[in-house]
Amino acid sequence: xxxxxxxxxxxxxxxxxxxxxxxxxxxxxxxxxxxxxxxxxxxxxxxxxxxxxxxxxxxxxxxxxxxxxxxxxxxxxxxxxxxxxxxxxxxxxxxxxxxxxxxxxxxxxxxxxxxxxxxxxxxxxxxxxxxxxxxxxxxxxxxxxxxxxxxxxxxxxxxxxxxxxxxxxxxxxxxxxxxxxxxxxxxxxxxxxxxxxxxxxxxxxxxxxxxxxxxxxxxxxxxxxxxxxxxxxxxxxxxxxxxx
Length: 244
What we know:
alpha+beta; Nuclear Transport Factor 2, Chain: A; six-stranded mixed β-sheet; 8 helices; 6 strands; 26% strand; globular
């Protein structure tokens, strides 16, 4: 094995270890009841954001230097509104181990890995990173796709924005709703290989809202995906399951 190959292997192993330290591994009851993390009022706010591209662009609160520094967020990340910002401030005071910058970086890294693992039918990777009920929905979608002989090829070219849209706590668990805006190419083919959706030469904007959860004040930095929702109806967007 050459030095270059060994170096790349070590880097890849390090990235996987780092990701799992942030998002954790599957260790919950596989029989968990499928219920939404958020209240109906909170879900209505999220739906309004997802349904309107103009609202999405206009409602993001620009972060001043002091706010950006306080939350330790990278430049590509925003907080959706003042209510969410205030709730995050309160959470940080209660949970000294909550590092939003670290969380955002891990979420940005995890998003393309999970989307592409779903398109490839990589159940092992998905089971490591998703909550049990969400994994079941992804597994079912993969199994149904295999029955019909359809294949999905998704390439995430860049995650351009990570917006924290909502925050809540239930039973000592912190839940953060995150809207990802990414550039992707997605092609769906039937069992004969004929394209039935998407264009291999077209880059599409993808918007999804996912909910990540972690126990408050835990020594374990792991975040898991507890909900996934499509945030747009664009033709050619990767067909991710809506799962809770």
